[in-house]
Amino acid sequence: MAMIDEPLYPIAVLIDELKNDDIQLRLNSIRRLSTIARALGEERTRKELIPFLSENNDDDDEVLLAMAEELGVFIPYVGGLEYANVLLPPLETLCTVEETCVRDKAVESLCRIGSQMREQDVIEHFIPLVKRLAAGEWFTARVSSCGLFHVAYPSAPEALKTELRTIYRQL
């Protein structure tokens, strides 16, 4: 492969494997996300890999579970705490799937990320995520939101704390 094509190779392989009919190939690809992210670099991981994962609607629970687990330790691969918020959208989507173990792992990963985020980022990104999930039409999103309040609440200003308590009571 030519040198000019090499930066595109990891993402191309990932995309091909994630679209493959063979579940084992899809699962192996997800389990290598950190390797792929290192090859892409922080910026391309943020701008290409994470959006791709957000749009990836795999129907296999094993693949979704592996993705939820991998993303929970992905802060270093997106550029550190300053960019941790880019990991929230794919995990938010995983909080709405029907399979309980996938939702639980997504909540666990969100808690891990949220507890490391800067206070302002929690207010700007994490708390709105909790509120969206709590207002979700389906029970899956609302159940998932319950596991996130303990991370969102301590960083919230007093007015937001009152709102979070009200939302939690309504759940």
Descriptive report:
The chain is mainly α and 171 residues long. It has a single domain, classed as Leucine-rich Repeat Variant (Alpha Horseshoe), CATH 1.25.10. It is 70% helix and 0% strand. The chain has twelve helices and no strands. The chain has helices at 9-18, 23-31, 33-40, 42-55, 61-71, 75-78, 88-94, 100-114, 119-134, 139-146, 149-152, 158-170. Helix 3 (33-40) packs across helix 4 (42-55), helix 4 runs parallel beside helix 7 (88-94) and helix 5 runs parallel beside helix 8 (100-114). It is globular, with a radius of gyration of 17 Å. The model is unreliable at 1-5 (pLDDT under 50).
Q: How many strand elements?
A: 0
Mean pLDDT: 90
Question: CATH superfamily membership, which one?
Answer: Leucine-rich Repeat Variant
Order of helices and strands: HHHHHHHHHHHH
Q: How many domains, in number, for the residues? A: 1
Question: What class would the helix/strand composition place it in?
Answer: mainly alpha
Measured distance between first and last alpha carbons? 54 Å
State Rg.
Answer: 17 Å
Our count of helices gives: 12
The proportion of residues forming helix, as a percent range, comes to: 55-70%
What is the highest CATH level, the class? Mainly Alpha
Sequence-ordered SSE layout with sheet pairings:
Layout: H1 9-18, H2 23-31, H3 33-40, H4 42-55, H5 61-71, H6 75-78, H7 88-94, H8 100-114, H9 119-134, H10 139-146, H11 149-152, H12 158-170
Helix pairs in contact: 1-2, 2-5, 3-4, 4-7, 5-8, 7-8, 9-10
